[in-house]
Design a protein that fits this description.
The protein is of the alpha+beta class. The chain has 15 helices and 75 strands. Strands 42-43-44-45-46-33-34-35-50-49-48-47 form a twelve-stranded mixed β-sheet, with no helix packed on it.
Length: 1275
């Protein structure tokens, strides 16, 4: 629900959360807001009571929220997410068995752009909503000239000429100055949009009646707001300079989109405007030496110049902005014209002056006439903070341009907003009452732009003032313009629709809103640290006073404990209370850097070290000013021994994963993708997606410490990255930093750092551990040719000759904080002090194996027990494993009878000899307990009999080895399960809602019958379209390890085969030049081994090249032409040439891609669980009709081969054997032996029979290497 009054919009978002569990749980929301909005209120309603939120400075709010969470209380916190300014993170800690309603209110002053105000509400319920309603009310000071609701759309820019309306929105007009908009789509309306309901932007556009005067003034309680937007004024002739980045990073789509936008800009120039173009890369050049007057001929010639621009070289931003400013400084009659410097770049300075502060200073000096520089940051590679500073320091505006199909419209739209000035050098003067007017917001503006609005606010201190006289002055197209107004302060003519009390403090709120906005903007452009801090302090004070959530504040609301009678208002009330955990709680570290190690021990030995990406190492040595750093080349799938110390029982191993990027020596860059820590009997596995301690999953998003047995674990934020801190309680602390891929990075990875090594012995080994028993010193030796300081590192070790290693001082990043610091860089020389560099590599990431837990084959253990009259138990790797083992022993070890038989007459053998117990039961005795009526017991004994019989049959089938007998036992169990309506491992229960034709199923985990096929969960992918001649493929998939399944026309069962690939390999899945589609898959290690001792591998990255587009897919992100999509999205993306949609199939997310040319691809993501060690991807061709017969690659090859199968009887294992014939033009017929085997479909996961041909299929090519490529980006 939104309430708009005098352009000031207040919107309420409501969400309900229920927690059925017995422990408190945290739920996180991402609430999407307009860029300009401030959150002003946050409340939680619990048990009918409302608990209001407080706005605190960020650190204070975080402490209060953390303290409440530790007490298990319901708590919510709202704070800005720094990476995306139009989304706010809402964290709600819901108490056990509680229902919480949280209400979030945000406010914004609507901006007038292109002639109207626009109010946006973001919709994304992710489901069909029974009572879907949006209500917007508008109250204005003047008559509304237009109220419009366009169709729901996504965030992509739309062309202005599209004037369609939302047919489901109802607009009513109670008065000429007010409007009501209601939007209530039915369930059918929502379903027509998608099965997940309506998602997108609900927009209301409106404008008011305008005249050529000084505007409107609204006064309430001494605060006034002045709205200025005159009409019927002509544009000032303008000088336009387009400063355009044509560096190498602009190559491809971005350059084309920029050209298209510039062509549109040139078309819009008026007769009499002057223009020029400055293109820059490493060098720069002007289109013409002087400004060009716009006319049909000159614009046409300029367009030809733009079309011929090419991208190459580096990025010299400094020279471009300096030369551009100097060019306009020399222009004739520039004071009578409006100036537009339109600056666009997609990167950071890499040529010429690269120091950002120096560039800002240079531009400020060069732009002596204060021309506005309107700046655009195009794509992820651009430094938007720097671009924003350029604009703010030079009277301009800035905009982030997203790499998407609408980038041309984004660029052109921004130009349209800023290029049409009707007044310049605008100033607001509050005349005879000037001494009474205080706390004014900004009153001087470089220009007033056509279709926009200027808003000024202030406070009238003198209550005796009855009339506010004001004037607005500026330079227009015909010369000086002065507009004046006298505002009657006693005129309280509010709109009739609401009572006057509703408007109390609305002007004060607008004043505070504007003041904070302008202070925050001013702080961005300020270079003096003292002044900057003072500005931010003023903004913080106002944010706290008016309860706005801004970049400086957070809002927290806490439900008091039951024993408390009042709400928690002061920080100490929360901070001083004791948490339920009896152990002391260490407060989470916010920001900052990691502390140095404790620095004990003799000089020359290490006191801390870290290992980072690629991988490189940094070791801190006592007595050395700078740390020691070196690199070690490792291949994908390698396992590095980071630390081994038997005395403390700590072992740290790191698994290496590929990046599919190459260094200058053409070697693939590698990173640490998994770290395993073995400590005493504990096992901790850490990947960028999860943390598992003794089988229990912890979370990277957690804010509070875990006090586990022997180990304290805490996750903190350091420089925007999450860092896992481990304290082993024996003077050893380790930190593991997670880095999520961004920009050109292709893989998430980990860094590890030893914070405190005091508890480690001198017998430690491993890449970091070795330095605990080595003595290292450095002697400076002058400088080298590159003017780097050179040093001679001496490494001494008992029983070994002294090692001399040449090194030089170089800046490298600290492995955890990321801060650049000088270190003695020694290349690979350090590692060679060991007998062999291989000393640091181990075969298995698990140095210590457990006899219980995830590594044990429970189905096998169960069979052993059943076949030998015993019982079995799964022991979970957790802190209570000792009790689990001892408890199971206590259950089975105390026999009081053996050889017990029930004969319904006779005997058994006890400790004193034979024991015989007898009973005579009266079958007519129906004395049921009085608690319930006898009818409740009808058939209860029959149910118990059926329950026991099914359980025992299922157990018996597990231990049975004869397949025929086993199947007969399972058949008996199935018949009883169906008769008595039990959901067992052999059955499922389905509930159907007839009118909707929807079904849901509940399955029991198949724990007892390992060989039974699990029933399908959810939907499955449709088969391909099945066009083409018999014997050719009509769909195929590639899955983990990796194995392939191809569906052949005319064959009842698909063809399946395996292909061994090593970590770091790149497989060519599909290549088709005619359709322009190429699919490559990068192979990642699992650190698990098969029966042949080869590491199992999976597809960890898939790259799809289509025409000029590039899509990169990993288990953590999806990137299309540089724009990031999300695995969690529910609605399709309609991108340029491609439609992308993420759906859920059998609890896994599947990315579906439609290329619009009768080709559809599906990519399934599997998140590691149980014994799995790596997240991975599967790929499947759903429709290949648009692919040509010239296709190649693992899946593409079958489009031009003819495949048939001839059944040949059975083999020794009673498997049906077949002879596969593969025919290809110009090649001899290939015969491949195969047999029918159940394998999982690569996307749905359903087990199905297929003709398994091992590696024989791949050998039909000239060489198996035909399916491998060198680079994942290869076409």
């Amino acid at each position: 629900m939104s309430d708009i009054r005098f352009r000031f919009a207040t919107t309420l978002v409501t969400s309900k959360v229920a927690n059925p569990a017995n422990t408190s749980q945290e739920v996180r929301f991402d609430v999407t807001l307009p860029n300009e909005a401030f959150i002003s209120d946050f409340q939680m309603e619990i048990g009918g009571k409302i608990y209001p939120g407080e706005v605190n400075e960020k650190v204070a709010a975080q402490k209060k929220y953390d303290a409440a969470k530790k007490k298990g209380q319901s708590a919510g916190q709202v704070k800005q997410k720094p990476r995306n300014t139009n989304r706010f993170s809402v964290e709600v800690n819901v108490g056990a068995q509680e229902k919480v309603v949280f209400n979030l209110t945000y406010q914004e002053l609507l901006k007038r752009k292109r002639g109207s105000y626009e109010h946006v509400i973001y919709i994304n319920p992710k489901q069909i909503v029974a009572d879907f309603q949006i209500h917007v009310s508008i109250e204005e000071s003047r008559e509304l000239t237009e109220v419009r609701v366009p169709p729901i759309r996504n965030e992509l820019e739309q062309k202005l000429e599209i004037k369609a309306g939302n047919t489901l929105a109802v607009v009513s007009r109670p008065t000429s100055k007010s409007a009501r908009i209601s939007y209530s789509p039915s369930e059918a309306d929502q379903r027509q949009n998608s099965e997940r309901g309506i998602s997108g932007l609900f927009i209301v556009e409106y404008d008011i009646d305008r005249k050529t005067n000084a505007g409107d003034v609204m006064v309430v309680d001494g605060y006034f707001v002045h709205f200025f937007a005159p009409s019927d004024m002509e544009e000032i002739p303008k000088d336009v300079l387009l400063i355009l980045d044509v560096s190498g990073s602009m190559y491809g789509t971005k350059l084309k989109q920029m050209k298209d936008a510039v062509l549109g800009i040139l078309s819009d120039l008026h007769e009499g405007d002057r223009f020029n173009i400055l293109k820059f890369s490493s060098s720069l050049s002007f289109y013409k030496e002087s400004s060009v007057t716009a006319n049909t001929k000159t614009v046409k010639e300029a367009k030809r110049y733009v079309k011929n621009m090419v991208a190459t070289g580096g990025t010299n931003i400094n020279s471009a902005l300096l030369d551009g400013s100097n060019f306009l400084n020399k222009a004739e009659n520039f004071r009578e014209r409006a100036q537009v410097i339109f600056f666009l770049t997609d990167g950071q300075p890499s040529s010429g002056e690269t120091n950002l502060n120096k560039i800002l200073e240079n531009v400020r000096i060069a732009n002596s006439n204060a021309f506005p520089i309107y700046s655009l940051a195009f794509g992820q590679g651009a430094d938007y903070n720097f671009i924003k500073k350029v604009a703010i320091q030079n009277n301009g505006l800035s905009r982030k341009i997203y790499e998407d199909s609408d980038a041309t419209l984004q660029i052109k739209g921004f130009y349209d907003e800023v290029s049409a000035a009707v007044l310049k050098d605008v100033s607001f003067k509050y005349l005879n009452n000037a001494s009474s007017v205080q706390n004014l917001t900004k009153i001087s503006f470089h220009s007033y732009l056509l279709g926009s609005e200027i808003v000024v606010a202030g406070k009238i201190e003198n209550k005796d003032v009855k009339v506010l006289d004001l004037s607005v002055e500026g330079l227009g197209s015909q010369g000086t313009v002065e507009l004046s107004l006298s505002a009657d302060l006693d005129d309280n003519s509010f709109p009739e629709l609401t009572k006057p009390g509703d408007y109390v403090k609305i002007t004060e709120k607008i004043w505070a809103y504007l003041t904070i906005k302008q202070l925050l903007e001013k702080s961005v452009g300020e270079t003096d640290p003292t002044v900057k801090e003072d500005i931010k302090k003023q903004a913080l004070e106002l944010s706290l006073k008016y309860k706005f959530v801004t970049p400086l504040t957070s809002m927290v609301v806490v439900k008091p404990e039951k024993k408390e009678t009042s709400s928690v208002d002061e920080e100490d009330d929360v901070a001083d209370s004791k948490p339920p955990n009896p152990l002391p709680v260490k407060p989470p570290t916010q920001g900052g850097s990691l502390p140095l190690s404790f620095n004990r021990g003799p000089p020359g030995t290490s006191y801390g070290g870290g290992a980072g990406g690629d991988p490189h190492f940094m070791i801190r040595i006592r007595g050395m000013e700078y740390p020691l750093c070196f690199d070690l080349h490792a291949n994908p799938g390698d396992v590095l021994r980071i630390l081994a110390n038997k005395e403390s029982g700590i072992f740290i191993n790191a698994g290496i994963v590929p990046s599919f990027k190459f260094d200058a020596h053409h070697r693939m860059k590698t990173f640490m993708g998994e770290i395993v820590i073995l400590f005493k009997s504990h096992v901790m596995k850490v990947t960028p997606t999860k943390i598992v301690f003794d089988g229990a999953e912890l979370f990277w998003g957690d804010e509070n410490p875990y006090f586990l047995k022997d180990v304290t674990v805490e996750v903190v934020t350091i420089k925007r990255c999450r860092v896992l801190r481990l304290d082993f309680g024996n003077s050893v602390q380790v930190a593991i930093k997670r880095t999520i891929a961004y920009g050109n990075m292709t893989v998430d990875y980990l860094n590890v750092y030893i914070e405190n090594e005091a508890g480690l012995s001198e017998n430690s080994s491993g890449i970091l551990g070795q330095f605990l028993h080595r003595h290292v010193t450095v002697h400076q030796r002058g400088t080298n040719r590159k003017n780097q300081i050179v040093g001679d590192i001496l490494i001494e070790e008992a029983g070994m000759p002294t090692k001399h290693v040449r090194s030089f001082l170089k800046e490298k990043p600290d492995e955890v904080t990321g801060n650049l610091e000088l270190c003695w860089n020694a290349h690979n020389g350090i590692t060679k002090t060991a007998e062999s560099v291989q000393h640091f590599f181990v075969d298995d990431i698990m140095e210590i194996k457990c006899s219980f837990g995830q590594g044990a084959d429970y189905n096998f253990i169960k069979k052993v027990a059943i076949q030998n009259n015993g019982l079995s138990r799964k022991i979970y790797e957790d802190s209570d494993a000792t009790l689990q083992i001892k408890g199971f022993y206590d259950e089975v070890s105390a026999a009081v009878l053996k050889d017990v038989s029930f004969k319904y007459l006779k005997q058994g053998l006890g400790s004193q000899g034979t024991v015989e117990l007898s009973l005579s039961a009266d079958l007519d005795d129906n004395s049921f307990p009085e608690l319930t009526k006898p009818g409740d017991y009808v058939k209860i004994t029959g149910k118990i009999w059926a329950y026991l019989t099914i359980k025992q049959l299922l157990e018996k089938s597990v231990g049975e080895t004869d397949p025929t007998v086993k199947e007969d036992i399972k058949k008996q169990a199935l018949e009883l399960s169906l008769k008595y309506k039990f959901v067992t491992p052999l059955t499922s229960m389905v509930v159907v809602k007839p009118e909707k034709n929807e079904t849901s199923s509940v399955d029991e985990e198949d724990d007892a019958v390992a060989d039974s096929k699990p029933p399908p969960q959810g939907g499955s992918l449709p088969l391909s379209y099945n066009r083409g001649p018999p014997g050719t493929s009509y769909g195929g998939g590639a899955g983990g390890d990796p194995h392939f399944m191809i569906r052949i026309r005319g064959m009842e069962y698909p063809l399946c085969f395996d292909l061994h690939a090593n970590p770091g390999d790149v497989l060519r899945i599909l290549a088709d030049q005619e359709s322009g589609i190429f699919i490559n898959a990068g192979i990642v290690p699992s650190f698990k081994f098969d029966t042949h001792h080869r590491m199992k591998t999976f597809m960890g990255e898939i790259v799809i090249l289509f025409k000029s587009h590039v899509m990169k897919v990993t288990p953590t992100k999806i990137v299309f032409d540089g724009a990031e999509l999300f695995w969690g999205d529910e609605n399709p993306y309609f991108l340029n040439d491609v439609t992308v949609e993420v759906v859920t199939i059998k609890r896994c997310r599947v990315l579906r891609i439609d290329f619009g040319n009768d080709v559809q691809i599906a990519i399934k993501r599997t998140i590691a669980y149980g014994n799995m060690a790596v997240d991975y991807l599967n790929v499947y061709i759903e429709n290949e009709a648009g692919l040509s017969e010239n296709s190649s690659g693992m899946l593409g090859q079958f489009l031009h081969r003819h495949v048939t199968v001839h059944q040949r009887g059975t083999n020794r294992k009673n498997q049906i054997v077949g002879d596969i014939l593969i025919e290809e033009a110009g090649m001899p017929t290939k015969h491949v032996r195969s047999y029918l085997k159940e394998k999982p479909d690569e996307v749905t996961g359903n087990l199905e029979l297929c003709w398994n041909a091992h590696n024989g299929i791949t050998k039909t090519a000239k060489s198996v290497q035909h399916f491998f490529v060198d680079d994942i980006m290869e076409m």
